[in-house]
Structure formats: C-alpha cells, structure tokens
Amino acid sequence: MNKQLLSKFCLYNQSFRQFSYKPIKRPSLSQLKDPQDKSSNGHCLKAPTLHECLVAKIKAVGPLPVAEYMKEALTNPNGGYYMSKDVLGQKGDFITSPEIGQIFGELVAVWLYSEWQKIGSPKPFQIIELGPGRGTLIQDVIRSLSQFGLSECISVHLVEVSPYLSQLQARRLCCQYRNNEPTADERHYCRGETLSGIPILWYKKVEDVPNHFSIVLAHEFFDALPIHKFQRTDGKWREILVDYDAKAEKYQLVVARKETPMLKLFLANLDSKEQREHIEYSVLGHQILEHLSMRLEEHGGFGLIMDYGHNGNKGDTFRGFKEHQLHDPLIEPGSADLTADVDFKQVKQMVEKDDRLITFGPVEQRVFLKKLGGDVRLDRLLKSAVPNVRSQIQSGYDMLTDPKEMGSRFKFFSIFPSVLTDHLRKYPAIGFD
C-alpha cells in the first residue's frame, strides 16, 4: 500500500464535502446553541442521538463513506452498538465460536503453545487479543496455558474500545482490577490480575501495547472494522456512500458521482487483473495490519486471525445481524451488529509486502479444529461429562465443524516474521499444513 497516498487520504478526508453530489446547506450560526447553555428547568441540553449525529453529518458534508457510517453505528458514544450492552449469546444478536464450547479456546491454546515451543519457547511473552468480546476465548486460553505451567511467564493485553465490554471482561477474568488514567509511560486504562497471578491490561488501541515478543489473537475482530465499498459502474470505479432520504425517512446507498479521496487510494493499488465488480476495503484494518507487521518483525512473535472471510472471490458482503438473523444494515443504526467478510487475499498482500511476514491459510475452521485434535478432545469431554451435558457438548462441536454451520464460513489465518521462513518450511504451522 502506498503510505504517501494513505497519509494524503487522512488530510483529504477532512474536506469530504467537495465530493458530495448534491449542494450543501450550512446551518445558520445564529441557530446554533452553546452546549453549556441550560434549559429552563435547569438541566443541560440532551446529547444528540446516534441517528441525529448521522443525519447532521450528512447534512453538513453530504453522503458519508460506508466506513464512516459503520464506525458511528458501532462505536458512537451516544448509541453505538458495542458501547453499552452485552451483544453476545442467546439473548444477544449473535454467538461466537468460543461461546459455543470450551473446545474452541482449548485448541487455540494448543496451537499457540505448539508454535511457541517450535521457535524456542521465549520467556516472558505477552498475549494480545484484539476485540475480546466477553473474554471467553482468552479465559479458555489462560486456563489451558496455566495447565502447561506457563502462568509465571505470561502477561495478557486486551484491546477493547467498549467501556461496557471491558468491565464485563474484567469481572470474568480477574480476581481484582482497577481503572487507570493512561499516561505516556502507562497507556492502559484498566489493570487486573487472575487468580493464578497473570496480569491483564486493557488498551484502546493496539499501538499502545508494549513492544515485546507477542502472540496476537484476533477472533471476529477484522470483520467488524469499518469498510469502504467500491463498485464498477459503466466501466468506471466509484465509491459507494450512505445518504439519508429525509422524505422517506431512511438511509440509502448511493454511488458517488466524483472521484473521492479513498477512491484515488484504491485505484493506485488496484490489481490490473481484478475481475470483481464490487470490492470492500478497510483503512483501519490496513493500519492495524501494518502495525502488527512492524511489531512482529522487530520484536518477535506470531498471530492467529479467526474470522468470516474469503480469498478474494467475493464482492458485496456488508450486512447486519440482529437477534441471530440477517438484518438490513441501513435500518436503525446502532441496533444491530454490522459486519463484512475479511478479504484474506488483501490481508496476505498487506502483511507479506517487503517480505516482512509469511502467512499460512486461510483454511476452514473445521479443517483447523480437526487437525488440532478436536475429535480426540471431544471424545474425552464426552466420557467425563454427566449424561445430560453430553448432547450439549456434541451439538456445540457439530456447530463449530459442520460445513453448513460455522465449519466452512469461518477461516483461520496465521502470520509469522519472515526470519522464520526456513524454520517453518521444515516445521509448518500446525492446522495449516
């Protein structure tokens, strides 16, 4: 990716209104109210809702990139989907693999332990999880690694933007924890400790995590990052934007009439052999992968990405999930999870640039879990389980591995520093060979 163009985009994006296809009506300054003003009843004016924020932005600058709409819908402090509620489980809108059964997290821990041993068992090491959800995956990983006697050489670093979810994770994982005001030296905003003495720290962004040998886990993280959407229309590429129809009172997708800043960046890196008519791209995802590439190359470590995805053969995958059903992502923003499949072909190209990293995968979830000994672990759990729990364990494993369920829809993808190339050719990453 051209870093100069990426930098220019950050500047261009501040003046996006010039690329709107319709005239802009600026509000009269006399109509604006001071947020410190109080109403007659003595209370501060009510903060705008997510819907009001989105409509105001569209009125001010014109149709928004899908990435901007998605970011606001998921993380806006005033109604963003992830910011104030538990969205997982049967009572939520979707369920993740770690929530279905302990086998998933245990096998991830086995993979982590095996790859760590193969490169010399460096101590101490830190585990970084991006978007930990309820903390179920890292809880199973910590428990499994503790059984291997590794409690004294591990620290856990969780990257979480949701205040609600971080507190949920802390209550699940820690025997004690406290909030912390980030400083230049200590950038975490919360710190806790498990019963076995493993320190756990929380951060808003992965760049704030200390630079040491790191094992990175990302489960259903990249699919939730904001995406830009591009469509080939009449032989020309254009960016897809989100507009608001005031008369119909609904959001709608529109095609930009002019070349947007992000389209320039996209075209500069477009494969001349690209056959798809629709492509999705995440700037934030690219920035995070750039950072991970630098971190693993300079400080050592490896990573495992587990997510919905494809290998560059899909186009339009932007969708919502609500109450475990597909949901129109443009209806009631903030009420549903918004997601788009990870393009692992893009990911591979990004991290392998300049020979910084080498990759394995993507492989289907069912393939990975079975190669890690999932069937053997299932048999042991069934033999030790009480009769009324056995059917639940079996059905959970079936859901994880059935091609018609999660078995083929989810993919596993691993990244390693290129300095390990010769070693990994001799001893390939398990689950991918």
Report on the architecture of this protein:
There is one protein chain. The protein is of the alpha/beta class and 433 residues long. It is 34% helix and 22% strand. The protein is built from 14 helices and 18 strands. Strands 2, 3, 4, 5, 6, 7, 12, 16, 17 and 18 form a ten-stranded mixed β-sheet that branches. Strands 1, 8, 9, 10 and 11 form a five-stranded antiparallel β-sheet that branches. Strands 14-13-15 form a three-stranded antiparallel β-sheet. α1 (3-12) runs antiparallel to α8 and α5 (102-118) crosses α6 (136-147). The protein is globular and about 60 Å long. The chain starts with a helix and ends in a 7-residue tail after the last helix. Mean pLDDT is 87; it is low at 8-40.
List the SSEs and their pairings.
Elements: H1 3-12, H2 50-61, E1 64-65, H3 66-75, H4 97-100, H5 102-118, E2 125-130, H6 136-147, E3 154-159, H7 163-173, E4 176-179, E5 190-193, E6 199-203, E7 214-219, E8 228-233, E9 236-245, E10 250-255, H8 261-268, E11 278-281, H9 283-299, E12 301-310, E13 319-322, E14 325-327, E15 337-339, E16 342-343, H10 344-351, E17 357-364, H11 365-371, H12 374-384, H13 387-401, E18 410-417, H14 421-426
Parallel strand pairs: 2-3, 2-7, 3-6, 7-12, 12-16
Antiparallel strand pairs: 1-9, 4-5, 5-6, 8-9, 8-11, 9-10, 12-18, 13-14, 13-15, 17-18
Helix pairs in contact: 1-8, 5-6, 12-13
Apparent shape? globular
Question: Would you tell me the structural class of the helices and strands?
Answer: alpha/beta
Percent of residues in β-strands: 15-25%
User: If you average the pLDDT, what whole number results?
Assistant: 87
* Major sheet summary line: 10 strands, mixed
- Rg, nearest Å: 23 Å
Count every beta strand, where a strand is a DSSP E run of 2 or more residues.
18
